[in-house]
Amino acid sequence: MADQTLDAKGLNCPLPILRAKKALQTLPPGGTLEVLATDPGAVKDFQAFCRTTGNELVESTSEGKILRFLIRRTG
Amino acid sequence: MSSVTADQRSGAKSMSIIVTKGTLDWAYPPFILGTTAAAMGLDVTMFFTFYGLPLLLKNLDLRLSPLGNPAMKMPMAGMHMGMPNLASVIPGMEAAASKMMRNLMNKKGVASIGDLRTLAIESEVRMIACQMTMDLFEYTLADMIEGPELGGAATYIEVATRSDINLFI
Fold first, then answer.
1. Residue span of the structural domain in which B146 resides
2. CATH code, A55
3. What's the CATH number where B152 sits?
4. Residue B54 domain-assigned (yes or no)
5. What is the CA radius of gyration of chain A?
6. Within an 8 Å CB–CB cutoff, is residue B91 touching chain A?
7. CA B158, B54, B42 angle in degrees (round to 5)?
8. Contact A18/B119, CB-based, under 8 Å?
9. What is the maximum alpha-carbon separation in chain A?
10. Which domain holds residue A67?
11. Are B36 and A12 inside 8 Å of each other by CB?
C-alpha cells in the first residue's frame, strides 16, 4: 500500500509528471507514491523521470487502459 | 542583482530556453519543456523575446492561425481536416480555429498555457523579459505577471554559457 495515491487519469503530457513531482515533495524520504494515469506516453516518461531524479520506479503496471506507477522517494 | 545563477548555487543540471513565439500552439513547447525540466531537478531559465514576450502578460489572449500552416489538421468527424489558406482570411476564422483548438486541448486533458505558466513560476523557473522588446512593443512590468525580471542579450548569454541545454523556440 502506497503512502499516497495520485489520480492523474485523463491528464496529458506533462501533467502526470508535474503532479507526481509535487506529490513526491510532500512525502518523507523513502515514502511511496502511487500514480494512476491513462496517458500511454507516461510509461516511458516515468522511467526517464525516475532515472534523472534518482527516485525509484518500484512498479509499472497496467490494467486495461489504466496505468499504475509506484514510485519511492529516494531522490 | 546577483549574477550568480541558480545552477552555480545548487550544482544541478540546467536548461535555458529562448521563447520567441506567442501563438497558442507555439506557446506549448517552451512551457512544457521548462516545467518538466524543473520537475526533473534542472535549473531552468526562460528568456521571453519578440512575440514570446506577450506570454508574460497578465491577460493571456492566445490565438493561432491556420494561415500558411498546411500541417495544421484538426480531427473532425473521424478525419483530419486542414483549412485552405484562402478560407483563413474570412473574418472570425482565426478566432474560430483558436476556440476549436482550445476545446480539443481541454477534451484531451492538455494543460492550458496559463496553468503551465503558473506551474513554471511555482517551480522557480527564472523568467527574463527582453528589455528591448518591452520598449519596442511599449509594455511595462505592470502589464506582466509577478516574477519576470528584465534583461537583455548579454543577460541571456551569461545564462547560456553556464547551461547544459540551450533551446531556441
1. 11-168
2. 3.30.110.40
3. 3.40.1260.10
4. yes
5. 11
6. no
7. 40
8. yes
9. 31
10. 4-72
11. no
**Cβ separation of A53 and B41 shorter than 8 Å?**
yes
Interface mutation vs chain A, best among B10, B32, B124, most A CBs within 10 Å: B32
b/e for B13-40, b at 16 or more Cβ within 10 A? bbbbbbbbebbbbbbbebbbbbbbbbbb
User: Are B32 and A52 a contacting pair at CB < 8 A?
Assistant: no
Distance CA(B155)–CA(A6), nearest Å, equals 39
| pTM attached to this predicted model | 0.89
Residue from the list B40, B110, B119 with its beta carbon closest to the beta carbon of A49: B40
Rounded to whole angstroms, the Cα distance separating A61 from B154 reads 48
H or E stretch at B92: none
Q: ipTM of this model?
A: 0.89
Q: What is the pLDDT along chain B (169 residues), one digit of tens a residue?
A: 444 554 455 679 999 999 999 999 999 999 999 999 999 999 999 999 999 999 999 999 899 888 888 888 888 888 998 888 888 888 888 898 899 999 999 999 999 999 999 999 999 999 999 999 999 999 999 999 999 999 999 999 999 999 999 999 9
Structural domains counted in chain A: 1
Number of domains present in the structure of chain B: 1
